[in-house]
Amino acid sequence: MPELPEVETIVNSLRPRVVGKTIIGIVVRDTRPIQQIGVEEFCRRLMGRSIRGLSRRGKYIIFSLSHKNNLVVHLRMTGALLWNPAGPEPFSRLEFVLDDRSKLVYTDVRRFGTFCLARDAGKIVGKLGIEPLNKEFTRPALAAYLGTRSTPVKTALLNQERIAGIGNMYADEALFAAGIHPLRPSSSLKPQEIAALHRSIRAVLKKAVKNQGASIRNYRQPDGEAGRAHEEFAVAHRGGQACPHCSTTITRIVVGQRGTYLCPHCQTAPGMTTLKSRTKGLTGQ
DNA sequence: CATTGTCCCTGGAAGC
DNA sequence: TGCTTCCAGGGACAAT
Asked: What is the mean pLDDT of residues A173-186?
């Protein structure tokens, strides 16, 4: 599932391959991903445009195009952007042919992904919150946000309008690394817990970017390779396995309709007072 | 406004 | 073996 580290990896991989190229062909195998406008207009506004730049905001990918246009892509659950895939892709939905004859193929088993065209990308990504890897994501900013919320802290971390890019897996990993139970009310976190969570969020995301994302399900890099970040997950998608710190069996609960993995020993349950910081091995580098 | 719940979608796993 | 049922979950949207 592409979250911030996966999208960052995709953008970094694609950038040198597509920036400066011109779109000379489009194959629409499925119209569902195309939002707000018809297929015809979508193609007309993309054909002959050159790709000037590629960037990420939250979990969105932004292709900056000539003629002041932006193609804003969200991969949702199972979307992938593949560059010159070796064979036919069974779930190919859109294909873009570039002027060097290279092909950018959008595949998506479950068809949740979206493609939007906008003169102003802010119209789509403008509501997103702070980028957790940017300087503006400070400990006081996190404290100010969490301090006023009663929702479970995990739910708060998933709110894209406040912090952009954290998804289900990395919320679990960050909370484990900080020793915080996902069901703790946001406003109940103590200053030292907020400090630990702030460090953990950055450390977990940075480490995952370095490992080129996590291939839990369908995620692939544009060259078709899997990521390695999931190999180092402590709890995410590891129900039934042993906690790397205390060997307690990792459990799965549901928080805000999302599957949630945690160590019941290391992550103090709501209402309990013991604080166990688990930031070891995550230097935040 | 904050918060909760429903829906979208389909392959793969689990159950019978 | 083959059929049916359930599950995964980001974000839009509706309801409270």
From this structure: 93
Whole-number Å distance between alpha carbons of A111 and A182: 30
Closest CA to A177 of A198, A162, A159: A198
Give me the CA A243–C1' B11 separation in Å, rounded.
30
Residues 6+ apart with CB under 8 A from A135: none
Where does residue A109 rank: exposed (0-12), middle (13-18), buried (19+ CB within 10 A)?
middle
Residues pairing with A226 in the sheet? none
- pLDDT category at A271 given cuts 50, 70, 90 is low
Closest nucleotide to A187's CA, by C1' atom? B2
Q: How many CA atoms lie within 13 A of A238 on its CB side?
A: 21
Task: Name all domains of chain A by residue range, CATH numbers in brackets.
Answer: 4-125 (3.20.190.10), 139-262 (1.10.8.50)
The predicted model scores a pTM of: 0.92
Answer for the pair A63, A55: CB distance below 8 angstroms, yes or no: no
Please check whether strand B approaches the CB of A109 to within 7 Å. yes
Asked if residue A186 has pLDDT above 90, the reply is yes
Name the strand (E) or helix (H) holding A153: helix A153-157
- Does the nearest atom of strand B lie within 7 Å of A110's Cβ? yes
User: What's the burial of A25, exposed, middle or buried (CB within 10 Å: 0-12/13-18/19+)?
Assistant: middle
* Strand B contact nucleotides, protein CB < 7 Å: 2-11
If pLDDT is split at 50, 70 and 90, which confidence band does A237 have? confident
